[in-house]
């Protein structure tokens, strides 16, 4: 009963699911370039090369489509971040890994994902999931960056600290543009992570 109607319609066959993924990829690409402002089924249909009726067959309305596209855009960002962190394993400290993901977090589609959080704050009745899902998506990756020998509760605490701090830096980046100030704060985070990793 809890499944969305669009998913029930498109999940009946491998072909239907493949078509749904193809449409979502195209809408996500458009979102990454043009942002959330003026997002509509008409714009999404144009980007996907189809009609709004086809989109409504595969998705449960414009809010559902927008949410799924934001989630996919965020997953792309996380994948690139984790790839950058993996390359940093040559200097295998938590601080080095966090330093490696920061350029990804402030690059390319960061402004669109910041818009998504703003939309969730502005209209939580419709878009609260955009914010709640952000934490659900990022925490496992940040958790995985922590030293393997740490107990899970310590990993979660530090992952939460990193997420909250980086989110604050991203808001500051978007609102003030104070690059030197943000860098100074980021340097302090790196020192804090070095101390945390050195602690017993």
Description:
With 200 residues, this protein is mainly α. The chain has a single domain, classed as Tetracycline Repressor, domain 2 (Orthogonal Bundle). It contains ten helices and no strands. The chain is elongated and about 60 Å long. The protein starts with a helix and ends with a helix. The model has no long low-confidence stretch (mean pLDDT 86). InterPro entries: Homeodomain-like_sf, HTH_TetR. Residues 40-59 bind DNA. Keywords: DNA-binding. This is HTH tetR-type domain-containing protein.
Q: What is the alpha-carbon Rg in Å?
A: 19 Å
Domain tally: 1
CATH class: Mainly Alpha
Question: Low-confidence runs (pLDDT<50, min 5 residues)?
Answer: none
Q: Give the CATH H-level superfamily.
A: Tetracycline Repressor, domain 2
Estimated helix fraction: over 70%
Number of strands: 0
Mind telling me which CATH architecture this is? Orthogonal Bundle
Number of helices: 10
Strand content bin: under 5%
Kindly name the structural category.
mainly alpha
The CATH topology corresponds to Tetracycline Repressor, domain 2
Itemize the secondary structure elements and their pairings.
Blueprint: H1 5-10, H2 14-34, H3 41-48, H4 52-58, H5 62-87, H6 94-105, H7 110-122, H8 124-145, H9 152-175, H10 179-198
List keywords for this structure.
80% helix; mainly alpha; Tetracycline Repressor, domain 2; 200 residues
């Amino acid at each position: 009963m809890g499944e969305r109607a669009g998913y029930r319609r498109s999940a009946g066959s491998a072909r239907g699911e493949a078509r749904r993924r193809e449409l979502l990829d195209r809408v996500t690409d458009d979102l990454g370039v043009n942002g959330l402002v003026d997002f509509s089924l008409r714009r999404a249909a144009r980007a996907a090369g189809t009609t709004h009726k086809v989109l409504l067959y595969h998705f449960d309305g414009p809010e559902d489509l927008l949410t799924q596209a934001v989630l996919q855009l965020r997953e792309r960002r996380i994948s690139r971040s984790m790839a950058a962190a993996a390359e940093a394993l040559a200097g295998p400290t938590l601080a080095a890994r966090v330093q490696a993901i920061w350029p990804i977090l402030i690059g390319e589609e960061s402004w669109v994902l910041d818009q998504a959080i703003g939309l969730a704050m502005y209209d939580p009745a419709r878009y609260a999931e955009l914010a709640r899902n952000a934490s659900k998506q990022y925490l496992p990756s940040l958790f995985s960056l922590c030293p393997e020998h740490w107990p899970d509760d310590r990993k979660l605490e530090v992952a939460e600290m990193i997420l909250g701090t980086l989110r604050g830096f991203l808001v500051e980046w978007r609102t003030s543009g104070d690059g030197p100030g943000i860098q100074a704060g980021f340097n302090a985070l790196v020192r804090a992570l070095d101390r945390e990793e050195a602690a017993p």
